C-alpha cells in the first residue's frame, strides 16, 4: 500500500504556525505600498508614472537582496534568516519618520527600499523553510496554505489604509504625511517585538526533503543534484514566470484605487475599501486553489488560472463600468495561486541547490519594480487601457505551466 504523505509532522507544527504568520506581515507591507502609491500622488503631487517608483523601490530591493539573503540563510540557517528580515523590515519602517519630516519622496523611497530588503529576506527564507517542514509531495499544499495568510495580510493592508490614511478628509501636505509617520512607527514596533519573540523560540532541526541523500534526510525523493542549477529548465522557466507574475500583480494592485477613482467615480477612501474586497478574492482563491490541488495537478490549475486572467484583463481594459470592475476583482482571484505555485514548481527536485534556487526566484520579484512604471505611463492617459499590458505576463505564465514546469 502507498501511504499518502502528511501535510506536516507534529514536531514542526509550532514552527509552521510561526513561519506562516510571517507571510501575513509582508502581505500587509506590499498592499500598503499600493495605498501609498495613490496617497503620494495627493500629498507630494507626483504623477501616476512617478508614483510607480513606490513599487520600484520595494521590488527593486528584492533583486538586490535576493542572493545575499540566500547566502546568509545557507550560512546561518532559517531562523537567523528570519531575524535578519524582520530587523530590516523594522528599520525601514522607522525610516518613514525622517522621510515624513523632510517631506521628501526620495527619502520615502530609501525607506521603502530598506523595508523591501527585509521583505525580500523573509520571502527568500520562508518559502524553502515551509517547504522543508514535511514531505516534498505536499510542499505545494504547504506553500499555498502559508500564502493564504499572505493574502490575509493583503486584506489588512488596504483596511489600514482606508481607515487610517484615507478616512475622513483627503489631507495634503504635512497633515497627510503625519498619518503615514505614525502608522509606520506602529508597524516598526510590532515587527521589532515579533523579532524579539522569535529569537526566544527553539526551532527544531528541519527535515529538508530537498537536501542531499547523505544528510540524514528521510524519504526517497531527496537527491544529490546531477547537473548545474541553470541546466534545470523547470527552474529557469520558474524564474521567468515569477518575474512576469509579480510584474502583473504589482501593476494591477498599484492602480486599483486609481481605477476606482477614475472609472467608477469613487472617492479614494471608498476605492481603498473596495480594495479590501479585492484582496478577499485572493484569499478565497488561495483556499479554493489549495483544495483543488488535491484533485488537479498544480501546473494544470496554474495554466487554467492564467487563461482566466487573460480574459479578465481584456474585460477590464474595455471600461464597461461594473462589469469591468467585477473582472478586476476576478483578476486577484485567479492571481491567488500563481506566486506560491510557481515557486513550488521551480524548486522541485533540486537537492542541495534548493536554497540557491529560492534566492533567484525571489530576485525575479524585480518584475514588480518595472511594470508599474510602464502601466503608469499609460494610466496617466487612460487607466483602463493600462490593463492590456498584464496579458503578456499571463501568457508567459501559461507557457510555463503548460509546457515548461515539468522536472526533466
From TrEMBL:
**Which Pfam families does this entry report, sorted A to Z?**
MFS_1
Keywords, A to Z? Cell membrane, Membrane, Transmembrane, Transmembrane helix
Might you report a single GO cellular component term?
Answer: plasma membrane
SUPFAM superfamilies xref list: MFS general substrate transporter
Mind listing the GO molecular function terms for this protein? fucose:proton symporter activity
**Boundaries of each Major facilitator superfamily (MFS) profile domain copy?**
13-408
Membrane spanning stretches: 12-33, 53-73, 80-100, 106-131, 143-166, 182-201, 235-259, 271-289, 301-320, 326-345, 357-375, 387-405
The record gives the membrane topology as: Multi-pass membrane protein
Q: Where in the cell is it found?
A: Cell inner membrane
Organism domain of life:
Bacteria
Q: In this entry, which stretches build a coiled coil?
A: none
UniProt name for this protein: L-fucose:H+ symporter permease
